[in-house]
Every structure is written in C-alpha cells, then in structure tokens.
Amino acid sequence: xxxxxxxxxxxxxxxxxxxxxxxxxxxxxxxxxxxxxxxxxxxxxxxxxxxxxxxxxxxxxxxxxxxxxxxxxxxxxxxxxxxxxxxxxxxxxxxxxxxxxxxxxxxxxxxxxxxxxxxxxxxxxxxxxxxxxx
Length: 134
Hints:
This protein is mainly α.
C-alpha cells in the first residue's frame, strides 16, 4: 500500500471549529498533545506494521480522537468527521446508514475493550461499511 494522505492537527482543529459552529457546545482544546499523538499513532502503524489497510489506520484515528477527549465538546463528532475525511481523501467512502454510524461511534466511545480489540473491531466494521472508488 502506498502511503496515504494524512490528516494534520490543523485539519482536526478546523473540523472541531465547524462542529461547534453547527451544533453548539464549548469550543476549546483540552490537550493539543493528544491530538498529535492520535494522528501520529496511525502514521507509526503504517510505517512499522506489516501491511496495515486504510480501514485499520482510520480506526486508529477514530479511537484516538474519541478516547483521548482532546476537546471540551464534540469529541465523537470530530472522530467521525476525521475518519470520514481520511477515508474520502484516500479514495474510500463510508456507506453505512447514518443510524449505524452514530451507534458505532457511540459504542466506540463507551467501549471497555482493550485498545487493540476496540481498534480491530472498529476496523472490521469500517471494512464492511466502506466502498473504494477505483
């Protein structure tokens, strides 16, 4: 797999700003370091793991952005839009019904499973609910 187009911190801040503008809530970053950490974890997985797929990398983004509580409000929404955007800029489309998406991200936020299990479960769901544009 060639190196994907990555999201960066500015992308995540912009996503958060738009979510707060649309849905309300408190703007504010709790921990900028955790945002960068969440993004770098996916890059590290790409560089140091044998053949990760795009859904696995997207799952790492989603898990990190939800579980690290980087923002005062909107963490689930930021994670969802970040995953959606990352998949889209790399040629994939999330095709699950909206209700399934909301349930999956809520489940991810509340999971007590280990990080590895939660990420693999989420990656599996993404594989079943994405379509690659050729």
